[in-house]
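Something for you to look into today, if you have time. I want to see for myself how the chain folds. Leave the record below and I will have a look.
***
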Amino acid sequence: MGRLVFITGASSGIGQALAWRFYQAGYSLALVARRTEETLAWAQSINIQSDRYKIYSADVSVVDSIVAAGQACLAQQGVPDVVIASAGISVGVDTAERGDIDVMVKVLATNTVGTAATFHPFIEPMTRRGSGALVGIGSVAGIRGLPGHGAYCASKAGVISYCESLRGELRSCGVKVVTICPGYIDTH
């Protein structure tokens, strides 16, 4: 069996771009998105071979949803070689506004907790196998705060620190943890 990559946020942006790149490199794809119809339309529009991908519906901000998608991937496609937690949102916030605290909760649930929940189903099988890579998509905004974007910046700082901690935990198991911190990207 060929190599397999599991990617959240596959309906657009960085997740979709990574899916295309991994496909070109010969990987089979486990594509995860809330907008599965858009993901399917994209895969068909660029002629991705139907036997080289599966699409899983999940919302990474809902732990049981993304864990179920990971478990479905394990059952249907096996243990991935690479898992990329790419799903994310960026919404401006003003901490003086009470409603924006609720927005911050959603951003943290999606970007930070969603990354951990994405990795969760794969840690034990990858550890048992002794190989694999878990890739968290951070941001330069996780290193340097930006006015009006406290929720996003905090969430990406959380991804960076979480991945650093997980890297130390898994170092001796043969599972790599990679953090990518891109700058500004036009993702439409």
In short: The chain has one domain: 4-180. The chain has a mean pLDDT of 95. The longest helix spans residues 98-129. The radius of gyration is 16 Å.
